Structure formats: C-alpha cells, structure tokens
Predict the structure.
Amino acid sequence: MQRSGTTLLRRLFTIHPEVRKIFHESFFLSKHKNARSLSTYVKHHYINPKKDIWGEKCPFYPDIKKIKPETYCRKLHSWYPKKFRVIHIIRHPIDVANSNIKKFDYIRDINQPLRMYRKIIPRIVSELTESYVLHIKYEYLLLEPDLVIPKIFSFCNLTPDIDYKRRLKKIENPNYQKINSSRAFAFLKEEQNINMNFDKSFKLLDRVGGPKY
C-alpha cells in the first residue's frame, strides 16, 4: 500500500547488480491478464522474461475492486513458478495515515489506510502464506537493516551481501528512523472521531516478525 515503504523497497532492488530492472508502477493488476501479455510487456523493455531477474513496485489499491491481490499473486506464480517472489511490506496504519497527510496535505487520506488495515491487509497476511511470499515490517527494515535486507535478497535468490548503505543513506539517517508519528496523528484522530480499534489487525501483523505493534 502507498506510504508503506514501497519506494524504499524498490530502491533496494534497483541497486542490486543481479536485478535487470524494477519497474516503478505500471499497474500489472489491471493490464496483464495472461503470461503472454506480461512477457510482451517486459520484452518491450529489453528484458528476457525467462532468464532475467525483473519485477515491479506494484501497489494494488487502484485495482482492489477488480481482482484481489492474493488472487493475482497466485496467478503470477502459476506463470513463473520457479522464480516468482512476493515481498509484502507493512507499516503501522497510524504512520501510513499520517504520512498520507504530510505527502498530499489532504485530510480525507486518513480514512483509506485505516480502512485497508482493518479489512484488507490482515486478510492478505492470513491468506498469502505460500513459500514464495515474504511479509516484512517497514519499521523492522529501518531498525534492523543489516538483518532484514540480506533476508530479503536471499529470499529472492540474490546475493545477500551487497553494499547497500552507500546507495541508501536514508536508512542510516537517524531523523528518518523516527517512525513513531502517533503524537502528530492523535490530534487528527480526535478531530475526525476515527475508530482506532486495530486489535485484530495487529495480532495478524505480529506474525510477520520484528518489532511488535
């Protein structure tokens, strides 16, 4: 979901020498209905879909009504069963909502991440349990990059020990690691009378590992 660390995760893959290309956002969910159309798409970008390592930062929210993310992941896996991997990055919903407000300066953006974290994200964590799926926490990526980043690369059959710090100075920036924005959000929560009961969601997200929500 947007504002959850998807761009940071994409940058991790773009700096890896074994990755041919990571597309920014082409909305695969709506454009590619079969393996042939997807292969045609990547070939236009000079990628061999069978030999090269490639992927996309693919937020599902614009197309959630057309196809469930977990359904689409299983479909893609059927097309590329040997190499297909899913990295699902999860951020605390309060911080996602607050980041939306800071980024877009639009108060209504509070409601979308809160609604999705109540209904959609827990469902994905519960249902996408296949071996080709790795759920990680955004906070864990910031606080323990030396553990999490090699884990991500190894999961994708990539060389785990590459020098990411030189290219991703953001991860080492103490100011960037201040991930608790609950104070800033508390005022907006009170103003909008938003229900903040995430008990069920948090129990599911805790399966992911790393710092507890």
User: Anything to note?
Assistant: The chain has a mean pLDDT of 78. The longest strand covers residues 86-90. The chain has one domain: 6-208. Strands lie at 21-23, 54-56, 86-90, 133-137.
